[in-house]
Amino acid sequence: MSQHRSFPWIVLITLLAMSLSSCARDPSVKKQQFLKSGNEYFAKEKYREAAIQYLNAIKVDPQFVEAHYQLAQAYLKLQIYSGAYQELLRTVDLNPDHLKAQVDLGNLLLSGRQFKEAQERAQLVLQKDPNNVDAHILLANSYAALQDLPASIQEMQTAIQMDPERAPSYLNLAVLQLGAKQADAAEASFKKAIELDPKSVQATLALGNFYGMQRRWADAELLFQRAVQLSPKNPVTHAALARLFLAQGNRQQSEEVLREAKKAMSDVPQGYRLLGDFYVVTGEAQKALAEYGALNQQYPGDLQVKKNYAQLLIGANQLDEANKTTDEILKRNPKDVDAAILRAQLQMMQKRPADAVTTLESFLKNEEDNVVLHFQLGRALAASGNAARAESEWREALRLAPNYVAAQEALSAAAAAKGDWEQARKGADAVILNNPNIPIGYLLRASARAGRGDYAGAEADAKKAMELAPQSAVPYLQLGAFRASTRRYAEAEKLFERALELDPRSTAALQALVSIYGDQKQPAKGVARASAQVAKAPEVSGHYLILGLAHLANKDSEQAEQALAKATDLEKQNVQAWVALAQVQTTRGSVDKAAASYQRAIEADPTQPIVYLMLGTLEESRNNWQRAQELYQKTLQVQPDYALAANNLAFLMLEHGGNVDAALSYAQVARRGLPDLPNTADTLAWAYYHKGAYSLAIDLLQEAVKKSPQNATYHYHLGMAYWKNNDKARAKQFLARALELKPANDKADEIRQTLAQLK
Fold first, then answer.
1. What is the pLDDT of residues 687-738, one digit of tens each?
2. Are 310 and 325 in contact (CB under 8 A)?
3. How far apart are CA 611 and CA 617, in angstroms?
4. Nearest 10 degrees: CA dihedral of 735, 738, 743, 749?
5. CA separation for the pair 585, 567 (Å, rounded)
6. Which of 130, 141, 77 is nearest to 99 (CA)?
7. Residue 60 confidence (pLDDT)
8. Long-range contacts of 577-581 (CB under 8 A, 24+ apart)
9. What is the spatial distance between Cα 640 and Cα 634, in angstroms, rounded to a whole number?
């Protein structure tokens, strides 16, 4: 009996299961489930998970308007602005009456500096809903961006009249009033926002910043302290208070605020990183490195700490540790783009630009729209000598982000390097247009104007950069260079001194200062000034390099060698210091030491052809011709058209029984590269001589002798060519003259034997 009674229940359960299964297969139910799940994640601030669920809903129904809109909101939270823009466009395409999406789209256009298009979106919404407060605010902000402040303020006041209890509206109005130089009205609006929402951190900070701008330090401090109390786990509030003390010149108190913030926010990454970032901003590289080193130990799972630490290690030239840290990041996340850029930077510093190109290109395959990757690839290509492709990558970066200052700067600098001053100026103008309140655009335009001879315009731009960044050494350095170029040395000296006050580590400023003493024939003064700066910044390798060169100019090779040796001790990768040291050691007769120094320079940077050439010349001077030949060949591997190396290699091959055809080819490379040098004429002629083309050799040797009439070798070669060409009289004439000019002993014996045969 019990079995018969259970049958209806079995049927009921079966029917219910079938019903639920049917619901699960119903697309309208399924998409709503995904939307609901996405909204739940969104409410918990799990925006990536929310985005995945919204995408699932869209897969079920590509026309699902609300899923597209919510996906846009998730992308906005994740700062994936291109994705948000596309989803908002899709939303309004599917439903033009989705006014929230229209306003959001307008705000994105506004942030992308498409002011007219943002205004049109606001007006479209207001046509459908004249009382839409958000649309009025968008319209107000678009008017402000288009420099119509009266209309902007009026529109904002309209929005406030519609909703007078909305605190953020007063904040927006206050900002607009500040732009219109209505300080009293702005203060009243800031206060009204706080009155409506006393717990608003944003309003409290805004009024504090307003007081800070007016140097009402006490009022600003009270508000920032209150903001910290309102939101003690908010990095922004602590940073605002620290900036206030720094603005007053109270660096110690600013640092103390951030130390306390680090304790209070030991579980907030942006909070415990504030102190290290403070050291970076204030230029205290060693403290920043130490702080981030400690954070890396304390928070080994924080990849941003590792990235910042690696960047600081690169700046400190601690490449081994930087490599290790970057490897740790990539081990945890092989697709980490920031780590890839760090690796490329390291490869560039290790003089491996081709490897950097490979690294960046491998990541670009999956990150085609990554602006920074394109920019860094441009830098690597430029270092590899591929200027055309480098500029192409920078232009691509600008296509993706028209306001990307670094790419605009790179293109302007590239144009300046080619002497295309008009293009350099246009690039600088673009930087200024998009970023009128940062100095780099004015510095670039100053260089372009100076290149065209417009020194008045160049100085005006340099002074503007100085106004915008009064604590930066760069504008003073640039203005000083302009003054020095017009021999206004006293003014230039003051500017360079100011640059060194602001940045005691600036080798460019010290070099400029010592150079103007050299121009004025005051080498001792250059030595004294470089010595003084070394005492102030004894850790800077470049300062010792400048001191060594100053000692050389003052004809003190012993002191020069000591200073240059110190420069190489401090920075093993300082190629210029190694080369200068080798040259001093050569002049002092320490040839073995010089050869070792050149070798260290090669190890520091194996891509510099001139170092191989200089070492090759040194080895040749001490009759180690096999080693010299190897070095000249290495030079040509690095730079195949290096004329001097080709010339020297060809001559050695001819003198020591090498392949004559190969020697002729190298000699032709040398002649093409240095067509006016008698040495290349002589080498090519000697190759023709060995090939039996005596007439061709004679023409070139006549040119060499005419340009350098005191060179015994040229006379000797010309005499031999005449002899082989059966012109004995001229052969005797030039061989006899070669003896008079006192050639090397082995050549003198050969000349005497040849003259004896001619008699």
1. 999 999 999 999 999 999 999 999 999 999 999 999 999 999 999 999 999 9
2. yes
3. 10
4. 20
5. 15
6. 130
7. 87
8. 577/541, 577/544, 577/545, 577/548, 578/604, 579/610, 579/611, 579/614, 580/545, 580/548, 580/549, 580/552, 581/548
9. 9
Quick one: pLDDT at residue 1?
Answer: 37
Residue type, 467: E
Contact 462, 431 (CB under 8 A): no
Q: Which two tokens stand for residue 274?
A: 């504030």
Mean pLDDT of 241-266: 91
CA gap 261, 234 in Å, rounded: 9
Largest separation between any pair of C-alpha atoms in the chain: 144
Q: How far is residue 266 from each of residues 46, 224, 236, 261, 273, measured CA to CA in Å?
A: 22, 21, 15, 8, 9
Residue 26 confidence class, pLDDT cut points 50, 70, 90: low
CB 313 within 8 A of CB 325: yes
Phi, psi of 113 (to 5 degrees): 65, 20
Residues for the chain: how many in total? 759
| CA–CA dist 385, 417 (Å, integer) | 13
Task: For residues 285-295, give the mean pLDDT.
Answer: 92
Distance CA 275, CA 286 (A): 13
**Lowest-pLDDT choice from 60-74, 140-154, 352-366, 474-488:** 140-154
Mean pLDDT, range 361-371, rounded to an integer: 90
Tokens standing for residue 93 = 């395409």
CA quadruple 243, 248, 252, 257: dihedral positive or negative? negative
Instruction: Please measure the distance between the N-terminal and C-terminal CA atoms of the chain and give it in whole angstroms.
Output: 144
HEC-encoded secondary structure of 296-359: HHHCCCCHHHHHHHHHHHHHCCCHHHHHHHHHHHHHHCCCCHHHHHHHHHHHHHCCCHHHHHHH
- Classify 114 in phi/psi space as left (phi over 0), alpha (psi -120 to 50) or beta: beta
Q: What is the pLDDT of residue 662?
A: 95
Predicted local distance difference test score (pLDDT) of residue 25 = 58
Enter the tokens of residue 186.
């702005």
Q: What whole-number distance in Å separates Cα of residue 425 and Cα of residue 442?
A: 10
Residue 374 is predicted with a pLDDT of 94
**Which of 320, 328, 253, 271 is CA-nearest to residue 297?**
328
Q: Are 243 and 237 in contact (CB under 8 A)?
A: no
- pLDDT for 192 beyond 90: no
The rounded Cα 490 to chain-centroid distance in angstroms is 33
Q: Which two tokens stand for residue 750?
A: 């050969």
pLDDT tens-digit map of 574-600: 999 999 999 999 999 999 999 999 999
Q: Which residue shows structure tokens 């509206």?
A: 169
| Tokens describing residue 572 | 């093993």
Determine the average pLDDT of the residues in 484-502: 92
Per cent of the chain over pLDDT 90 is 55
Calculate the average pLDDT of the chain: 89
pLDDT digits (tens, 9 = 90+) for 103-124: 889 888 888 778 888 888 889 9
- CB contact set of 47 (below 8 Å; sequence gap of 6+): 41, 74, 77, 78
- pLDDT at site 20: 44
Is-contact 54 70, C-beta < 8 A? yes
| 3-state SS string for 414-450 | HHHHCCCHHHHHHHHHHHHHHCCCCCHHHHHHHHHHH
- The Cα 66–Cα 353 span in angstroms is 48
Look at residue 8 and tell me whether its pLDDT is greater than 70. no
Rounded Cα gap, residues 530 and 509, in angstroms: 11
Helical packing angle, 201-213 and 183-196, nearest 10°: 160
Query: Above 50 in pLDDT, residue 366?
Result: yes
Rounded CA gap, 19 and 361, in Å?
53
